[in-house]
Design brief:
The complex is a heterodimer.
Chain A: E1 3-9, H1 16-25, E2 30-32, E3 42-49, E4 52-61, H2 63-69, E5 81-87, H3 92-109, E6 112-115, E7 120-122, H4 124-135, H5 143-154
Antiparallel strand pairs in A: 1-5, 1-6, 2-3, 3-4, 4-5, 6-7
Helix pairs in contact in A: 1-3, 3-4
Chain B: E1 30-33, E2 41-42, E3 60-63, H1 72-92, H2 100-118, E4 128-132, E5 144-151, E6 157-164, H3 171-181, E7 189-195, E8 198-203
Parallel strand pairs in B: 3-8, 6-7
Antiparallel strand pairs in B: 1-2, 1-3, 4-5, 5-6, 7-8
Classes of the chains: A alpha+beta, B alpha+beta.
Chain lengths: 161, 224
């Protein structure tokens, strides 16, 4: 797993249903699977984004330990809780789902999002800009040509001598 | 509040991942570049402060000596995966208008596709972005996913690779990766990462005696 964000907060939501209500209030087309109780989340949380199966990993991490391990960051204060979101970096729908769910959770709990990619804190309103950005279509890229170029440069795969 | 722009550009190293303590007290790094010739060459230990925008800085690879396991298969694979990641970054760095999140997503996508297409020894197509515990499906609640796992001839996982485009892996995550993949507690979890255009490879299997620097980078890519 590669891409991550954390939501630091001083309170938690009580259930997936509460979280879903927060997501609905943001008008995101994301439906969380509610088969695992919120307090038991410790891995992949399935979801549907506009009807397509996706999801992200979700963990209740130790806020104190995370803050201590990242002493170079200014967390503002010692938050009580942190909810960790992790997703497979290549899957754009997981990226979108994680940011939507994280933004809604931050809004509902008055928390802040730490964006691992940029090393930046955002409140829920600021995080909405990221959601809007990742919601846009990805640029047209010839993935096969790029992969071929990488392998050709390194003489790997079909270009192996 | 301090943001990412304020943090040091040299990757911070978590205690668990501390690189080998050098004689002069400063971290040492083994650096290499990937020339278009298709082979990697050693370069003098070097730390380059890149642009804070990973899309526009020249690509440079930094390898933490602690990532070297002295297992030829693992070290050779580390070198190849590192080179693939660098080449992917090189090809994408001129794409304009990409935000950090979208840039990270594209790097991961290209990297995954390239690793599958490279057909590296010990890495089958289904060893890239795999759901664990073994046999669980993508939709399984409480599962985890790995970027790349390397297996020996018997199918045992001997290394777990994680491409990081943000901060370092937390120790708890390393433990979780080992536990849910069913690998042994001393299985190297090697982080392929960049900050700006710096990429470091680090392992939680820290072995202070294993500082052989760029040895893993000398492996030729012609071997199959």
């Amino acid at each position: 797993m590669s891409m991550e964000l954390w939501v630091f907060s001083d309170k938690q939501l009580n259930s997936i249903a509460d979280w879903q209500a927060a997501i609905d209030a943001e008008a995101f087309s994301l439906k969380l699977d509610d088969s695992t109780p919120f307090e038991s989340l410790k891995g992949f949380l399935p979801a549907h984004l506009r009807g397509q199966l996706t999801g992200f990993e979700c963990y209740h991490d130790d806020a104190g330990k995370l803050i201590r391990n990242n002493s170079d960051l200014n967390f503002g204060h010692a938050w009580n809780y942190v909810l960790a979101f992790r997703w497979v970096g290549s899957k754009v729908n997981e990226l979108r789902a994680a940011w939507m769910a994280g933004t809604a959770y931050a809004r509902a709990t008055g928390g802040v999002i730490f964006d691992d990619q940029e090393g930046k804190f955002r409140n829920a309103t600021e995080a909405l800009d990221v959601v809007r950005d990742v919601e846009r279509d990805m640029p047209e890229i010839d993935h096969k040509a790029l992969v071929d170029q990488v392998l050709r440069d390194l003489k790997l795969g079909p270009y192996r001598e | 509040m301090k943001t990412g722009a304020d943090r040091p550009l040299i990757p911070r190293v978590l205690p668990l991942f501390c690189p080998v303590t050098p004689q002069n007290g400063a971290p040492r790094y083994a650096a290499l570049e990937t020339p278009a010739s298709g082979t990697q060459t050693d370069a003098a230990p070097n730390v380059v402060l890149p642009s804070s925008d990973p899309r526009y800085a020249a690509t440079q690879v930094t390898v933490y000596p602690s990532a070297v396991t002295l297992n030829p298969l693992i070290d050779g694979t580390t070198a190849k995966l590192t080179a693939i990641l660098v080449q992917v970054m090189n090809n994408l760095e001129t794409w304009p208008g990409l935000t950090p999140q979208r840039y990270g997503q594209l790097v991961h996508q290209q990297f995954a596709d390239a690793v599958v297409a490279a057909v590296l020894p010990g890495i089958a197509a289904n060893d890239v972005e795999t759901t664990f515990p073994e046999g669980w499906s993508y939709r399984s609640a409480d599962s985890i996913r790995t970027d790349v796992v390397l297996r020996d001839d018997s199918g045992t996982i001997i290394a777990i690779y994680d491409v990081k485009t943000g901060r370092g892996l937390e120790p708890s995550r390393v433990d979780e990766l080992r536990a849910k993949t069913g690998s042994s507690p001393d299985t190297p979890v090697i982080e392929l990462r960049f900050e700006g255009a710096l990429l470091k490879v680090q392992s939680s299997a820290l072995d202070l005696a294993a500082e052989v620097g760029p040895a893993c980078c000398r492996l030729p890519f012609k071997e199959t």
